[in-house]
């Protein structure tokens, strides 16, 4: 059974827990394991925080998150009207270099890419649209957790 939940919040860091709660409720109801829920929450939280801090830069705005849960995957779509920015255009951070030599930033996007199965970006009709897909993973016995 497919389920879709859409939530629009102010571009304010304090709104992130509302979004995380909606993700948890929607995914838990669909039977997703805790690890998958935490992965999607982390990726969406990072996307929203980046939009608020780097996109809106303190200006008033809104972020819309749509969570679509299908039997075998969840799709989180994060939309905003901040200036266009493709987070996937950033190079992966050099994790081999000394901490003191590393450039600040970019680790959140790297982490986002690592915890979900697919990340895409589009700029459509004046909106940044970041889509994150997480597949329902089989348990250790190889059986699906559906």
Q: Any key phrases for this structure?
A:
146 residues, alpha+beta, Heat Shock Protein 90, 5-stranded antiparallel β-sheet, 27% strand, disordered C terminus
Question: What is the domain tally?
Answer: 1
Known CATH architecture: 2-Layer Sandwich
> From the helix content, strand content and strand pairing, which structural class follows?
alpha+beta
SSE succession:
EHHEEHEE
Describe the main β-sheet briefly: 5 strands, antiparallel
Could you state the CATH homologous superfamily? Histidine kinase-like ATPase, C-terminal domain
- How many separate helices? 3
Text of the CATH class: Alpha Beta
How are the strands of the largest sheet arranged? 1-2-3-5-4
Percent range for β-strand residues:
25-35%
Number of strands: 5
Q: How far is the first residue's CA from the last residue's CA?
A: 11 Å
Helix share, percent:
25-40%
CATH topology: Heat Shock Protein 90
Low-confidence stretches: 139-146
**What shape does the CA trace take?**
globular
- The mean pLDDT is 88
Gyration radius from CA atoms, angstroms: 16 Å
């Amino acid at each position: 059974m497919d389920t879709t939940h859409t939530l629009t919040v102010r571009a304010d860091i304090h709104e992130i827990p509302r979004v995380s709660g909606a993700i948890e409720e929607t995914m838990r109801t669909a039977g997703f394991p805790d690890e998958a829920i935490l992965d999607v929450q982390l990726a969406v939280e990072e996307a929203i925080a980046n939009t608020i801090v780097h996109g809106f830069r303190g200006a008033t705005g809104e972020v819309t998150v749509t969570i679509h849960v299908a039997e075998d995957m969840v799709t989180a779509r994060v939309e905003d009207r901040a200036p266009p920015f493709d987070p996937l255009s950033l190079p992966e951070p050099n994790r081999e270099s000394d901490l003191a030599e590393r450039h600040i930033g970019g680790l959140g996007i790297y982490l986002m890419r690592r915890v979900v199965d697919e990340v895409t970006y589009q700029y459509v009709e004046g909106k940044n649209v970041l889509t994150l897909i997480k597949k329902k993973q089989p348990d250790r016995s190889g059986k699906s957790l559906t």
